[in-house]
Amino acid sequence: MNARYMVSLVTVIVLFLIAWAGTALGLQVLFGIIIPYAALLLFIVGFIYRVMNWSRSAVPFRIPTTGGQHKSLPWFTHAQFDCPATKWQVVVRMALEILTFRSLFRNTRMKLKEGGRLSYQLEIFLWVGALAFHYAFLAVLIRHLRFFTEPVPFFVQLIENIDSFFRVEIIYPVFKFGIPGVFVSGIVLLLAVAYLFLRRIFTPQVRYISLASDYFPLFLIFGIALTGILMRYITKIDVTSAKALTMGLVTFRPTIPEGVGTIFYIHLFFVSVLLAYFPFSKLMHLGGIFLSPTRNLTTDTRTKRHVNPWNYPVPVHTYEEYEDEFRDKMIEVGLPVEKMPEPEPVKEDAPAKDETPAEEEEKE
Amino acid sequence: MAEELPKPEELIQIQHHSPKTDWISTPTNIRKGMYCYASNPKSVEYVGLPNAREWNPMEEDWKLPENWQEIIHQGFKERLERFRSFKVFMDICVRCGACADKCHYFIGTGDPKNMPVLRAELLRSVYRNDFTRAGRILGKLNGARPMSLDVLKEWWYYLFQCSECRRCSVFCPYGIDTAEITIMGRELLNLIGLNIDWIATPVANCYRTGNHLGIQPHAFIDMLDFFVDDIEEVTGVRVEPQFNKKGADILFITPSGDVFADPGTYTCMGYMMLFHYLQEKYGFDITWSTYASEGGNFGFFTSHETMKRLNSKMYAEAKRLGVKWILGGECGHMWRVINQYMDTMNGPADFLEEPVSPITGTKFENAKSTKMVHITEFTADLIKHGKLDLDPSRNDHLKVTYHDSCNTSRGMGIFDEPRYVIQNVCNHFYEMPANTIRENTFCCGSGAGLNAGEDMELRLTGGLPRANAVKYVHEKHGVNMLACICAIDRAALPPLMDYWVPEVNVTGVHELVANALNLAGQNDRTIDLRHEDLPGIEGESEEEADE
Fold first, then answer.
1. Which residues of B touch A68 (CB under 8 A)?
2. Nearest C-alpha of chain B: how many angstroms from A1?
3. A209-255: per-residue pLDDT in tens?
4. CB atoms A209 and B166 under 8 Å
5. Which of A290, B14, B15, B207 is the most buried (most CB within 10 A)?
6. Which residues on A lie below 8 Å from B387 (Cβ)?
7. DSSP 8-state secondary structure symbol assigned to residue A108
């Protein structure tokens, strides 16, 4: 038992009960109109605020992680996208990062084998899981545009067609069963979330680092996907009324139509909670990745000077101060000096001990 | 220290299991062998850093200023505003765990707080409490905790168990760089005088004498004179380095470690021989400086400000001497500083010229603004244009592999130049496994100022992944020489090899170059720079190589 995920699980169950009870009590306006609007507002304002807040902080130095050969002499092949020297190369690096999770693809797993040999094997499950999760989520989001547009744009249709490629139909003389167009994305989303959760539970290192705020969004998204799937395939809600509600929201003429089941309100409430929670949580990695200074900067700092907006002068030990301290010794070994000392008889120079700073001992 | 070390068979028994208690409730146990001594107050005072005093991490009382919590909070806030990296990295981690087993200290110690994600959480937990609403409300449940003395001690212990190698940042899907977090954390610790001596004293030395070791100008000359004699003994040629020469074409700056300790000294002799060769043949005019006699920058491990103060000497000296551009020797973090910070901090270097090799005419376009060229870029260009008379067979007794230093790899991207040079001066070169080189390279275990004697266990455990990969090529190909382009590597890798893979030695790239380089008027070169007999090369009558 782990308090961190139990708390998150219980929270999501409580949220479920709230929505359920609220609908039963006839608070449809609250759960169908007010909360969704408030959540969306919070999401938009919060998201913008967070991104602006990051942008306000300076980028004093160019510190990209150089993941490949830099651009140097012409006969060395420049790793353009791992060590981008131009803006366009950065764009490609970022695109690969954001669209294909390239860094995560490099993931390896370390093993200490018998005889004390370390090995590092490619470990792509996290990458597969993460990619499946995010793209499934994206597909689901795009499909849901159907509820917010009239007429439904062609690309939503397109995504739906691709997504519902698999059909489940059992046609026996005695038993006929069919679900028109199972959306793969929903199933994949559910499975991916389950995988990401189980991974947190069963990989000891990941369990050790996981916080309640890592479990909570997983449970919440699981809840969203599950209620969505239930609505579509099992409890079958009245899609027309549901769309009337969502269209009302998007056209700012909110209505509460008859016949929208409780489960719809639960689904909507979960989504609202996710939206409201988003800006305050790690989910902001969606915005943050665009601002990550180890990825979004060029590596051409030796070619083009980067300016630090708060660069300030610092005390330095000048050559003159240095020569003043060591002039006699410098002259003794024939080093050129800027200022010859007053013609004075040769001084006895004591071995330079006990002077500040502490003399370095031979430690190595 | 060495006598107390566990044996390799014991140290390799690493448990990667996490403790039963969650990390916030697991107290920090500051263990001997894993930490560095506190800084000498004289050094801290010399550079005017705060709260100089005698203190000992093993004692209860760290003699902190009364308002230390306020100083840390204020410092934290300031840095969130000054560094977007810090703010973004505090916010966006999703704790996916991809970084966990990428850290050499975690691999070598199994201590979960050495997972990059948890090292960052040490700071994030305080950040959430101090700077986010959700953190304040949800508290420990959400991984937030108020700053306390125990937290501070935990910070200190683990921020000085990170070598700022950036390996985790390669694997992080958002590019979160623990080095950046450690840098900020160490800055905060420095605000209340929590430094380590291995960093603070070199900083003070560098500030005063121009180099970390505190070598004064006359002693610096003496040391290089000694190398001149040594080179003469080995090659029969007397080289003549120039110092603090006004109007020279180029200023040369390299880490002082190479002047001071084997095997870096051989690399230093390598530079001297190369410069002599070029001077004789092409009239190459290069000068060393005693004022800017340090390439490395331990200020980088203290604070951005200290880094800038020490780094300022490079441009200042180049300006004073009136050189055209600067050539930089083999060093790791020195090159990260030059590549990613120097021009921004202390530039623009508009008093210098865009670097052009006086020998080949090659324009170093990639150093157009900093005006500083890496010596392997310079040498690779010489080799490419056939300007060096090389006899790689003098390195035939060596089976060489190459260790990419963290900083030149993930903070610069110089991978092919050193390889190109090595492969032109050595006939036997073998790469270590792909997951342990180039951008995936493993740290020597001693970077970022952790190269002290008292933390040897930390260094040996942290260096394990590197040593393990060397061992692999040692067993498979008989590799007996580990080349690198970093002075800390040259100091840190020999004890690491002695411990894990005896029979493998460590060298700088330019030691290999010098051994292959034919000098005009040389003797029959029967010994190498280490005064070791070269097998297969018959010398008529060997002079006894005495010091």
1. 413, 415, 438-439
2. 12
3. 999 999 999 999 999 999 999 998 888 788 899 999 999 999 999 99
4. no
5. B207
6. none
7. E
Contacts of A101 in chain B (CB under 8 A): 173
Show the tokens assigned to A71: 């651009």
| Contacts of residue B186, Cβ cutoff 8 Å, sequence gap at least 6 | B159, B160, B301, B302, B303
ipTM of the complex as predicted: 0.93
pLDDT bucket at A361, cuts 50 / 70 / 90: very low
Output phi, psi for B243, to 5 deg: -125, 140
Shortest Cα distance, chain A CAs vs residue B205, angstroms: 6
Q: DSSP for B228-277, please give it.
A: HHHHHHHHS------BS-TT-SEEEE--THHHHSTTHHHHHHHHHHHHHH
Q: Looking at A153-167, A256-270, B146-160, B350-364, which range is the least confident one?
A: A153-167
Each domain of chain B, given as residue ranges in start order, spans 2-30+50-194, 203-516
Instruction: Give the residue carrying structure tokens 């799937």.
Output: A229
Q: B142 and A306 in contact by Cβ < 8 A?
A: no
Contact A288 B174 (CB under 8 A): yes
Would you call A305 and B317 a contact, using CB atoms and an 8 Å cutoff?
A: no
Q: What pLDDT was estimated at residue A320?
A: 97
Write out the E strands in B55-104. Answer: none
- Taking the C-alpha atoms of residue B233 and residue B161, their distance in angstroms, rounded to an integer, is 43
Longest CA–CA span in chain B (Å) reads 83
* Nearest residue of chain B to residue A120 (CA atoms): B435
- Are A352 and B216 an interchain contact pair (Cβ–Cβ within 8 Å)? yes
What tokens were used for A331? 């002259």
For the cut 50, the answer to whether the pLDDT of residue B541 exceeds it is no
CB contact under 8 A, A308 and B87: no
Whole-number Å distance between alpha carbons of A133 and A128: 8
Digit-coded pLDDT (tens) for A73-92: 999 999 999 999 999 999 99
CA-to-CA separations, B137 to A131, B125, B247, B256, B331, in angstroms, rounded: 32, 13, 65, 51, 47
Residue B217 — φ and ψ, nearest 5°?
Answer: -55, -45
pLDDT averaged over every residue in chain B: 95
A174 has pLDDT over 90: no
Q: Which of A110, A285, A332 sits opposite B218 (nearest CB)?
A: A332
Domains of chain A: 3-291 (1.20.950.20), 314-341 (no CATH)
Q: Is the pLDDT of residue B1 over 50?
A: no
B363-395 pLDDT per residue, tens: 999 999 999 999 999 999 999 999 999 999 999
Q: Is A82 on the interface with B (CB under 8 A)?
A: yes
Distance CA A217, CA B365 (A): 49
Interface test with A, best of B344, B346, B376, B493 (most A CBs within 10 A): B344
pLDDT at B134: 80
pLDDT reported for residue A272: 98
Among left, alpha and beta (phi > 0; psi -120 to 50; other), residue A78 is beta
Q: Are B99 and B117 in contact (CB under 8 A)?
A: yes
In order of A152, A156, A178, B270, the CA distances from A164 in angstroms are 17, 12, 13, 68
